[in-house]
Amino acid sequence: MLNNTIIVTGGAGFIGANFVLDWVNADLGTVVNLDKLTYAGNLENLVDIQDNPHHIFIRGDIGNRALLAKLLAEYKPRAVINFAAESHVDRSIHGPEDFIQTNVVGTFHLLEEVRSYWNSLVAANPAEKENPQFRFLHVSTDEVYGTLSATDPAFTETTSYAPNSPYSATKAASDHLVRAYHHTYGLPVLTTNCSNNYGPYHFPEKLIPLCLLNALAGKPLPIYGDGQQIRDWLFVKDHCSAIRRVLEAGKLGETYNVGGWNEKANLDVINILCQILNELQPRSDGKRYEEQITFVKDRPGHDRRYAIDATKLERELSWKPAETFETGIRKTVEWYLNNQAWVHNVTTGEYRNWVNQNYAGRTA
Ligand code: NAD
Ligand code: TYD
Questions:
Q1: Which ligand sits closest to the CA of 233?
Q2: What are 170-189's pLDDT values in tens digits?
């Protein structure tokens, strides 16, 4: 019998932390949270559940086979959800190696240990092979599909992969491995390909939190190129609800696109952000935040447009996002304004001391 425990990897990052918080706060079972705590991992994201016995934090790498084997044997999870990744396109352009290590090699090691664990479940209970209860859910991105022109239809689950950045190429590689482990070994896998997320706990290297915090600090809001690149934006809590739904009801071996039907050009996103800031926290000099917008050199190989067709998830699994861009972005701005201590610790780098100060003795 499997425990009502799940292992989440990368659960101290932006989306993983939101997922773990929602899961534990909704009392859905115990989460074993395996995270390496790279620059993007922040245990302060999880402070609300720091003393909750249903959250077990383990500092470690998804490429550490011995650790994975130990955790799988000890906790006997009913699912493993893989959020762990290097996730920032600009960093992947400057230094792709960590992306290869974590997104490709790390996912491979994780798959191997999960396969071995699942084989042990099958050996103990042959019904697990025909009708698996265990799930491996791999969290991926729409960026694996490449770029669209203004008139192309949105990405569907059958759109060919054509990744353009080192980041998206490594995510594509991991998606292919996950697919192959299902096809070859029968591993019960699910994959989600989601559009750009935004919301609480977003690390300020990505467009929305970077511009939000730069605006408040009186710094330039850097817009790459002409600012007309289009992304489909989804509030992070909606991404988390989609993952829960796919985990619960998704068809094994299938992929599900997750998106918010919110295509917007970068410049429009930043103008909306500025309007909300003008209203909620006006500049002390009476000027508008839009004045801080600065056009800068474009990103090399910059994808022009992403658009997600989430019809399959909506039709087959009855999932719908709860937020529009307008409601989600307002909640996001309010969250940042109300969480100044988090912002301070992230912008000063103080958050990196959190693990030593608050989690001493609790990491592997
Ligand atoms: P993030 O960079 O904020 O967090 C990644 C987390 O993974 C961090 O806590 C980091 O410490 C951890 N990590 C990195 N390497 C690790 C390793 N080797 N072993 C264990 N932990 C490791 O990323 P995010 O934005 O939360 O994205 C999470 C997942 O969702 C990623 O797989 C990403 O590709 C995918 N995704 C992100 C978006 C988005 O808009 N942010 C959209 C679609 C899909
Ligand atoms: P980002 O948040 O890095 O996500 P991704 O590259 O995965 O889509 O960037 C979102 C969009 O914003 C993308 O088109 C690049 C652009 N961008 C800027 O214009 N300025 C910035 O400072 C950043 C970080 C991104």
A1: 1
A2: 999 999 999 999 999 999 99
Residues 22 and 11: beta-carbon distance below 8 Å:
no
Closest ligand 1 atom number to CA of residue 258: 43
Residue 210 Cβ contacting ligand 2 at under 6 Å: yes
| Residue 187: HSE in the Cβ half-sphere, 13 Å Cα cutoff | 25
Q: What is the pLDDT of residue 355?
A: 64
**What is the per-residue pLDDT for 109?**
99
Residue located via tokens 């912008």: 347
Nearest in space to 107 (alpha carbons), one of 88, 84, 89:
84
Question: Which position among 117, 128, 145, 167 bears the catalytic label?
Answer: 167
Catalytic residue status for 232: no
Buried-exposed string 144-163: b where 16+ CB fall within 10 A, e elsewhere: bbbbbeeeeebbebebeeeb
CB 34 within 8 A of CB 7: yes
Residue with tokens 């559940």: 49
Question: Is ligand 1 within 6 A of the CB of residue 106?
Answer: yes
Instruction: Quick: pLDDT tens for 53-104.
Output: 999 999 999 999 999 999 999 999 999 999 999 999 999 999 999 999 999 9
Strands 5-9 vs 79-82: parallel, antiparallel or unpaired: parallel
For residue 268, the ligand closest to its alpha carbon is 2
CA distance 362 to 73: 19
User: What domains sit in the chain, N to C, each tagged with a CATH number?
Assistant: 5-202+233-261+302-323 (3.40.50.720)
Q: Which amino acid is at 111?
A: L
Q: Two tokens at 332?
A: 């996001």
- In this structure, the chain runs to a length of 364
Note whether 31 and 24 are within 8 A (CB): yes
Of all ligands present, the nearest one to the C-alpha of 270 is: 2
At 2, is the pLDDT very low, low, confident or very high (cuts 50, 70, 90)?
confident
Could you tell me the pLDDT band of residue 3, with boundaries at 50, 70 and 90? confident
Is 142 assigned a catalytic role?
yes
59: which strand partners? 35
Nearest atom (ligand 2) to Cα of 227: 19
Ligand 1 binding pocket includes 135 (Cβ within 6 Å): no
| Closest Cα to atom 33 of ligand 1 | 87
